[in-house]
């Protein structure tokens, strides 16, 4: 065995054979543990950064609706400056549009009002560029959602987004 073979053996996973000296070479590899989800940040995040009257993001969340189509909702819980209001923001992106949202939306409304989350509002953020955004906004209007401005959350007047349409409902 030369120096080159020694270097290859040192850098490769441990090798063993099945069936003695004439057996089949088997490489054992160490499997990594599955990734652990990151906890919510322990420090609070102020949005917008550096704003005097910005809101504070308290928790991040991801909710799966296993009853219908396996829809995933992502969002966060925020407090307005002075903790006057607390809202659950949930993003309805392209993957959510067109799904059966009734069970998931019902669960989100219940979640927003539970102890620990304790929000005053559920704010749904619709992706303006997603197909069906207009129709979903109209349907959510029939349920009781209203178009919302984010003035209380940003500390500025007439806060609109080019990417998201915000619809709010009191919980």
From TrEMBL:
Chain positions covered by the region annotation Disordered: 1-44
Species lineage: Eukaryota, Fungi, Dikarya, Ascomycota, Pezizomycotina
GO biological process, one term: positive regulation of protein catabolic process
GO annotations of cellular component type: cytoplasm; nucleus
Pfam families for the chain: ODC_AZ
SUPFAM superfamilies: Acyl-CoA N-acyltransferases (Nat)
Family to which this protein belongs: Belongs to the ODC antizyme family.
Gene Ontology terms for molecular function: ornithine decarboxylase inhibitor activity
InterPro entries found in the cross-reference section: Acyl_CoA_acyltransferase, ODC_AZ, ODC_AZ_sf
Annotated protein name in UniProt: Ornithine decarboxylase antizyme
Its job: Ornithine decarboxylase (ODC) antizyme protein that negatively regulates ODC activity and intracellular polyamine biosynthesis in response to increased intracellular polyamine levels. Binds to ODC monomers, inhibiting the assembly of the functional ODC homodimer, and targets the monomers for ubiquitin-independent proteolytic destruction by the 26S proteasome.
Subunit structure, interactors included: Interacts with ODC and thereby sterically blocks ODC homodimerization.
The organism's place on the tree of life at top rank: Eukaryota
Database matches in PANTHER family: ORNITHINE DECARBOXYLASE ANTIZYME
């Amino acid at each position: 065995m030369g120096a080159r073979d020694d270097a290859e053996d040192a850098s490769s996973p441990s090798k063993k054979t099945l069936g003695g000296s004439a057996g089949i070479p088997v490489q054992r590899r160490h499997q990594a543990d599955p990734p652990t989800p990151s906890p919510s940040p322990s420090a609070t995040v102020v949005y917008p950064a550096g704003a005097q009257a910005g809101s504070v993001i308290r928790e991040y969340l991801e909710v799966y609706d296993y009853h219908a189509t396996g829809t995933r909702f992502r969002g966060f819980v925020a407090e307005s400056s002075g903790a006057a209001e607390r809202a659950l923001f949930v993003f309805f992106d392209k993957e959510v549009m067109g799904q059966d949202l009734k069970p998931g939306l019902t669960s989100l409304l219940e979640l927003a009002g539970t102890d620990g989350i304790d929000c005053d509002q559920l704010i749904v953020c619709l992706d303006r560029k997603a197909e069906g955004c207009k129709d979903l906004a109209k349907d959510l209007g029939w349920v009781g959602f209203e178009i919302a401005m984010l003035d209380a959350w940003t500390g500025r007047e007439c806060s609109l987004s080019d990417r998201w349409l915000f619809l709010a409902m009191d919980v």
